[in-house]
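ok so dumb question maybe but i'm new to this and my supervisor (M.) told me to 'just get the structure for Decapping nuclease' and walked off. so i did the thing. is this what she meant?? sequence i used:
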Amino acid sequence: MDLNEGYEDAIAKVFDKSEDTLYSWILKHQKEVCDNFRARNSNKPHIDFVCYRGLLKTIGSTIYEKNQDWLICATKFNSVIYLCDFRTEDKIKKMSQLTKKEKLMIFWGMKFEKYVTANTPDSEPKSSEPVNGKEKYFTVLKGRLGKHTLLYSAEVDGKDPLADANKPPTECYLELKTSKMYQNAAATDNEYRKFCTLKMRAWWLQSFLAGIPKVVCGFRDDLGIVRKLGTIPVADMPDKSMGSLSPSSPLNAISSFLDFVKKCVVEDAPTIYKFYWKPGNPVTCEKLNQPGEYQVLPEGFTSNLEF
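this is what came out, is it supposed to look like this??
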């Protein structure tokens, strides 16, 4: 598979918070949300937090992160805390300074998905069609972490046509990744060490939070040509991580952060609470009486919400 094909024709991903898919879904499925989150002896659903899986992954990765800061804003409405991550000045600067090779490598991941996915189980992939970064599929999940009940959404790459229909619904999904090939499966091979530590850590957390059971990886060379495929069960990743991953550690980090948010976020919308973290420093919280650029909820959401 040549992951370079179609690079010039790719359609870039543009995310507009005013057209947030999760909040649109909630408004269209309010009865379903209430039924699935209904609290005992109450007509109202019990939800502590609403967010995206990517935000949870960012928090969980904090224990490993040494370079990248993050900024997350929160607001409360009807006892539910809504979380949204924003790009920091440092992240914006880094994104604007991406080299052509770095942009190409981002494209490689999307192109790999194009090669191995099809619209239906009995159809073939249309790898010659332009890669469209705007086309995404999201699943909406109910989860519990520590004392917290969450409604969150995760992007998924594809469905396994051979998945067991009797298993939990999310186990039908697959995560698709690319990685540089390594020469030897030995601790002395630098590429193999990177794969076992950095990749296993990131892939495990991302997949575990969405209940996805396995990752299909396209192993590529330096020129962006996939030379072989591999399937890695998510449950095996901690053992493959060379001791760099303890599953409870990132989950505890997320739970601790949510504890902190609950203590800080006491006033209802439109008050915004801005949480900022920089490697080597504690998380800070700043209350914003005027949201400004840090608007968490899209316009019209609260006025159309019935719970």
